[in-house]
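Appendix B, Record 12. Input sequence as logged:
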Amino acid sequence: MAEHGNGDSTAVVKAGEGASNGYAIDNPGLPPHRPRLADVDEKAAKRSERQVAALFIVSIIGTLMFFVGYFAIARMDQFDDYFEGMSALRVQNTLIGVGTALAMLGIGLGIVHWAKTLMPDHEVTEARKPLRTEADRAEAEKIVTDVVEETQIKRRPLLRNTMIAAALLAPLPAVVVFRDLDRTADFGVERMRHSLWDEGVRLVRDPTGTPIRAADLTIGSAMHVIPENLREVSGHGDRLAEKAKAVVLIMRLNPDDLHEPTPGRENWSHEGIIACSKVCTHVGCPVALYERHTHHLLCPCHQSTFDASEEFKVTFGPAGRALPQLPITVDDEGFLIARSDFTEPVGPTYWERGHTDPEGDFPA
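Logged structural output:
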């Protein structure tokens, strides 16, 4: 490497040497702007406008789907003629889920497509300027005006109107859902104190409604059952609400494996057949996993474990109390029936459980 006598390298170009702008490398500037098809062809611009409007309309349709699923399916009894049991619930969930997705996706894609095809895409550079209060105000006003002009919202009323309609409708599903969380609505603790179970009500298979004989259950078997009078409840939504409180799991153990019952519960089982609420006392998930050798019931949501041989007490997990046990016996024909309703509220543990039962049927 050749060097000058003062030790400076001739291979190094220093800032300010050989460059007219004072930098070692000339500023290459912005690349040339490449116009899009919509910039030079009004037909293409109109086509993009219609595409954006169509996406906003998709958002509107999605919002309407949500309302149909949320209100119509749940509250119109004539849907029972077309859907049986949980099929109606699946249709409702599908409409709510797909509707919400389309509402959000349509408006989001519409705005993105609008920005990519119709709004100006020129790149600009600006030198930083000293702050001047009045000048800044005027410049800010000009920026806002330029942004409005660049969106072409004045020139294209179709875009403006469909976007406003979609934006106004899209938040409504969330408003409706949050409204239903209102604690003053008709879904308080009193509704959880009693279910459809009562003295003499038969235990039947779900969803067939077939009564169950005690002789049909072998040791180690378990079965999901509902009250026979559930079919008498009119209205799809009311029937689902009552079913959610009344779902029961029955199983048959060797009578020798059942521990000594709490006083007052001596006749709650029949020849080793016991029944309990399926609703976990933690957050209300369905308890449906039964291990016959350990007699354990497992909630799949948070792994709360209950011992069926010891009146369904909690042996592991976050649940705070045992699963409510349903007193059962058999009728004259050998079919399993309930002796009474649950003697405590079903469902998760909540602070209102400390309140007294106004009817005096059982302690809270």
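The chain has seven helices and ten strands.
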